[in-house]
Amino acid sequence: MKIQDVAQEIGISADTLRYYEKEGIVAPMRGENGYRYFDEDDIMILKYVVVLKYAQFSLSEIRDIMREPDQETLDECVQNYQNLLSSKIVELNQMIRNYQIIVGLLDQGLTLANGSRSHSKDKEALNEFVSQIYDDIRREE
Known about the structure:
Blueprint (H helix, E strand, L loop, with lengths): L2 H8 L3 H9 L6 E2 L5 E2 L2 H15 L4 H8 L7 H34 L12 H21 L1
Antiparallel strand pairs: 1-2
């Protein structure tokens, strides 16, 4: 498949595909005309990338996950891979908890827009939650 076809199928821009190639994420074949041709393996790799990006993995982390380790560094790569996945599980679980609290607040009609001005107890709980989420976000940066 040509780059425009892949971009349309996967739902990412041709520029992003070129960037992924530059970063070593995907390596499409080149025709004599210089055009990139993506095969089914390339398409699957790109689907993995989309899923991992959705799961909040950085491009650097994705590259590390998808890298083929050489025999000399296999044990080290496996350990790094396990550490990365473990920390990502912790991070995603925290995000899930935060989103569950947000959904609960929305279900109760407590929105950031009105701040529950009429109920000081609700406003206090909301402010505490926002501060906690803010601290989590800042810690991740």
